[in-house]
Write a structure and sequence with these properties.
Elements: H1 18-25, E1 33-37, E2 50-54, E3 60-62, H2 70-79, E4 87-89, H3 95-98, H4 101-107, E5 112-115, H5 120-124, H6 127-137, H7 139-144, E6 155-157, E7 166-170, E8 179-183, E9 186-190, E10 195-199, E11 202-206, H8 215-226, E12 232-235, E13 239-241, H9 244-268, H10 273-284, H11 296-319
Parallel strand pairs: 3-4, 4-5, 5-6, 9-12
Antiparallel strand pairs: 1-2, 2-3, 7-8, 8-9, 10-11, 12-13
The protein binds zinc ion.
Length: about 325
């Protein structure tokens, strides 16, 4: 993992307008649904973390990004004249999705936060989430910044989120406490459908399967999403596509392909196993083709997360699904 330079005290807020956001990001199936980039100060972490904003009868935002960039997201919303957010939908509690929640709610105190019920306590008192993340991610966690405690009154447990038009789907896999949401023809898939980018018209699709990875649980969640009607699919990292079924089918095939490729390397021996697996995946998996088009910093970021995902697979191949019955909610490495 590259060493990252010290971070500036407060990241510069983005100044964007609707038109420029849509032009810049090239997204949005309709006028209601927009991806807001939450740019990071970490090298290679551009166009990586985003919040999906849905505006209409009610305004929703899906994930709020890390603590250190919370002000940037708030300024983007101010620039867009968004003065009301009704609900924050959290796909999961990892730092890069929920770390900025406390600051966000200071600015939008009317918002209520839909969160996986068992995840809420880690946001009320985030010290173990922070310590676990620092251990798993090191300098990346420092770059995201420590989450501040959030008051309990803001939360709506996911099992009690009865919002007109909203479907909440438990999709454990990337994290045990992972949720996906559908709202008015949009599937907000978090990381349950992998990470998806399009670079120079070339796709890049990567499983986000950090240890502990329970493959059957992960694939079951993909199948749950595949059973939904075909719709616009919105990824947390970092883009969208018009057909959820097409993307999720492709992703499911990739997840199984990785198992075969990684198992092949594991049977060869344990020397430099993670590096060998990453190399083999980059050579053999056409869904990773756009890796060669990335700049050096982005490649370094992706190599780090590819390695994390490979480690998840190796653990699964060695240990299987056997102990899934009671994994720690903080048990997986964060993104
Ligand atoms: Zn993430």
């Amino acid at each position: 993992m590259p060493r990252f330079p010290p971070l500036p005290a407060s990241p510069q807020p983005q100044r964007l307008k609707w038109g420029s956001i849509k032009e810049e990001v090239g997204l949005s199936r309709d006028d209601n649904c927009t991806l807001l980039e939450i740019d990071q100060q970490l090298p290679g972490f551009h166009r990586f973390i985003g919040s999906w904003l849905y505006t209409g009868d009610i305004n929703l935002i899906v994930d709020v990004g890390p603590a250190n960039s919370a002000q940037s997201l708030i300024h983007t919303l101010i620039d867009l004249d968004i003065d009301r957010i009704d609900y924050v939908l959290l796909t999961h509690i990892h730092l890069d999705h929920a770390g900025g929640l406390s600051q966000f709610l200071e600015h939008f105190p009317m918002a209520r936060v839909v969160c996986y019920d068992r995840g809420i306590k880690h946001l009320l008192e985030p010290s173990s989430l922070w310590e676990g993340s620092r251990k798993a991610l090191g300098e990346i966690a420092e770059g995201y910044g420590p989450p501040e405690p959030v008051k309990g009154e803001f939360f709506v447990p996911h099992t009690e989120a009865h919002i007109d038009g909203l479907q909440v789907i438990e999709t454990p896999g990337h994290a045990i406490h992972h949720l996906s949401f559908t709202y008015r023809g949009n599937l907000f898939v978090g990381e349950a459908g992998g990470n998806y980018y399009s670079l120079k018209d070339t796709d890049y699709l990567r499983p986000a399967t950090p240890p502990r990875f329970f493959m059957e649980v992960f694939v079951n969640s993909v199948d749950k999403l595949l059973a939904l009607e075909d719709q616009h699919i919105c990824y947390a990292h970092f883009g969208d596509a018009t057909s959820s079924k097409q993307m999720l089918r492709r992703f499911r095939t990739q997840v199984l392909r990785w198992k075969d490729l990684i198992r092949g390397e594991v049977t060869v021996g344990s020397d430099a196993i993670v590096e060998r697996c990453v190399q083999r995946l980059l050579e053999k998996d056409l869904d990773l083709k756009a890796f060669s088009l990335m700049d050096t910093d982005t490649q370094a970021r992706e190599k780090y997360f590819l390695s994390n995902s490979v480690k998840g697979y190796i653990g699964f191949l060695q240990k299987g699904n056997a102990i899934f019955t009671s994994p720690s909610i903080l048990g997986s490495s964060t993104h």
